[in-house]
Design goal:
Layout: H1 6-20, H2 24-36, H3 42-54, H4 70-76, H5 87-99, H6 103-123, H7 136-161, H8 168-180, H9 188-210, H10 216-236, H11 242-254, H12 258-278, H13 284-300, H14 304-312, H15 320-336
Length: 338
């Protein structure tokens, strides 16, 4: 008989197929049947409870809240040491905590998921083939996702604290992403997340080092890493969002490469205007930020006419006083021929 029975496996696999087809209510009902049967082994019963609770998380169902998800209530009732198959369970709890902004707790759970996977690989305690319903590929996917989650939680905890004197979380984030990039079977979505996050972290680190003259070399190294990483995303995956595109332009400016920055901002402006052709006012704030930055770059290059033209396109009231003052100063400089 054992802890996992063949009939139990069939019901569990049925629930997974039903969930994959989007029939979550039927999948939950199948799992209810599984873990309420007296004949169901303890391990499978707990697994069914955890899986059913996963189908109630905010990712899948709008019912409930992040802080009081049924998943956490169900999982808290499982008191014994977790089987290696519970890698997914650790990860899902961490996902909930990450989405809820509880970064220290998320970091702990992601680390437990990672440790569980690595320990199971060392001990090879996956059970016999008949009962091994979680494929190695699926387990690797959860492991990769947990590494992404750990890196994200570390980065967000640093941003939440806002303490620029401490970069431990950033270093941990970079270390985790490099570990991730060495893994097998990385999906395009995971690779994109990893490179975006790596670029974000290097951008923040570069800003930190840039404030200290004795660490200029480290700042430059991180700025170059931003360009290298964001360019991978820009050429191999869906384009960068406007915020990261602006960060890339700022990076080129920090490296004294203004014309590269202008090229990026001009292209971003073009893309926003294309979107506004069918949706009036779409991303107007981002367009104002882009024109404002273009004005500043042209001013730096003493292209006063182009700078004034860019500033005049800024519409948001938030920048009105600043822009009008800049235009007046630029007109004076233009008149003087400076």
């Amino acid at each position: 008989s054992g802890d996992l029975k063949l009939g139990d496996n069939v019901l569990f696999m049925m629930s997974m197929c039903q969930a994959d087809q989007g029939d979550y209510s039927t999948a939950r009902a199948t799992l209810d049947t599984l873990f309420t049967q007296k004949s169901t082994g303890r391990l499978m019963s707990d697994m069914a409870r955890a899986r059913r609770a996963h189908l109630t998380t905010p990712e899948i169902s709008v019912a409930g809240t992040l802080t009081n998800s049924e998943y956490e209530i169900e999982f808290a009732g499982i008191k014994r040491d977790l089987h290696p198959h519970y890698l997914e369970s650790y990860k899902i709890i961490a996902d909930v905590q990450l989405a809820d902004g509880r970064y220290p707790e998320a970091i702990q759970k992601y680390q437990e998921a990672i440790d569980s996977h690595e320990k199971s690989l060392r001990r090879r305690t996956y059970g016999d083939a008949e009962n091994h319903y979680v494929t190695l590929s699926r387990t690797q996917q959860h492991y990769n996702d947990s590494l992404v989650g750990l890196a994200s939680a570390s980065f967000l905890r640093h941003k939440q604290h806002g303490d620029t004197s401490q970069i431990t979380d950033l270093d941990q984030c970079i270390k985790t992403i490099h570990k991730l990039l060495q893994q097998l079977e990385l999906s395009p979505s995971v690779l994109r997340k990893a490179h975006l996050l790596l670029g974000d972290v290097h951008y923040v680190r570069a800003d930190y080092y840039n404030g200290n003259r004795s660490q200029k070399d480290q700042a430059v190294a991180n700025y170059e890493a931003v360009i290298r990483t964001y360019r991978i995303v820009a050429t191999e995956y869906p384009k960068l969002d406007n915020s990261r595109n602006s960060n890339l332009a700022q990076t080129y400016l920090a490296l004294d490469m203004p014309y590269e920055a202008i090229s990026i901002l001009d292209e971003q402006k073009k893309q926003i205007l294309v979107g506004q052709a069918s949706h009036r006012g779409l991303h107007q704030y981002e367009l104002d930020l882009t024109n404002r930055m273009l004005g500043a770059v042209h001013r730096r290059l003493k292209n006063y006419t182009e700078a004034i033209a860019s500033y005049r396109l800024v519409q948001d009231d938030e920048f009105r006083t600043e822009v009008q003052s800049s235009i007046k100063n630029l007109q004076k400089l233009e008149a003087l021929g400076n």
